[in-house]
Amino acid sequence: MRIEKLTESTKKNLLEDLLKRSPNSYGKYEASVQQILNDVKEKGDEALFGYTEKFDGVKLDASQILVTDAEIEEAYTEVGEELLGIIRKALVNIRTYHEKQMQYSWFDSKPDGTILGQKVTALQRVGVYVPGGKAAYPSSVLMNIMPAKVAGVDEIIMVTPPGKDGKVTPTTLVAAKEAGADKVYKVGGAQAIGALAYGTESIPKVDKIVGPGNIYVALAKKSVYGHVSIDSIAGPSEILVLADETANPRFVAADLLSQAEHDELASAILVTTSMELAEKVSAQADAFIKELSRGEIIQKSLDNYGHILVADTLEDAIDAANSIASEHLEIVTANPFEVMTKIRNAGAIFIGEYSSEPLGDYFAGPNHVLPTNGTAKFFSPLSVDDFIKKSSIISYSKDALEKIHTDIEKFAEAEHLTAHANSIKVRFE
Q1: Binding of NAD(+): at which residues (predicted)?
Q2: Range of the domain at 39
Q3: Which residues does the annotation mark as catalytic?
Q4: Are residues 9 and 43 in the same domain?
């Protein structure tokens, strides 16, 4: 891995480099994505099945697109008891964590006849996108469905691309059933996002779409935002390790590579106050790459977006971490909890040398759907809040309104909105 001195210049160059990975930088695909969305909106199932045959190489119709109970039962026979047990353990942790995020309606009544409040309502129908292809990500299924389930969403619909055999990956199906998906449809890509956003003869329109996908899925979600809500426009995965001389270089190198193996656009960054640690981590990373199955992908990721930055002080290192606003941030320093209090921008913060990033990916409980590409400066992890909405409650008695009606009328008249003023005035003529 390349080792650089942390300066304002290297930090600026790094930030510019990382932003190149944003879905917003792939405008050349937008026209083709928009064409797919328009076709699905206008032609419904006809376009949906046509694009599924074109992109996924499988011919489906309305009688085959919905995963059946028999297919789910078959998936259970193919997933071993050991993995099923692990999925169920992870679900307990994920559910328990998200239950603590629950918000409830509240009402505040006063003796003068005023009642103000907030009504919390779960979304009615949500769509969850799950990538297919060569890799299966049952952990992503759990993380996207469980907060919706905890929030009380009435209907959770999952879409995922089928394989060439017209089937869904067994681990994906089992995870969906265990987490509580109501229906699973065999469709992926931008066409699946269009179906969820606009509805077709087979797939109902949803209120919100969540879940990761490739660049076509990301751009499709961006395009349909407004017709429906979305969670975020997800970019490539990223990790930043903030470490001092007390860190174990073998652990740090292993953690950096855990994200670099996602794809060639993934980013792995070490910011440290120790040149000795920097050199040991770089050497250890090189050694690990020779042993790991996705070594070629890891190497390209590190060549493109892997950095080791050596800072003069811990404060400089913390400042760099806040500027980068990484999706995953590990703190491996002598006083990690003290450092954590100075972190303003990060998707998920892992504290101490035994809080490795994959702990959050699979098992600990907090959501692994996190803001990327610096959006941790203003976005949060996926949570129960993403699956609820709030309505304001206002109720005034005649006596309560009478005390303030002239104030409201004068405010309205100051804005030259006489009908507003009249709406209040007629009640006291």
Answers
A1: 129, 191, 214
A2: 25-230
A3: 327-328
A4: no
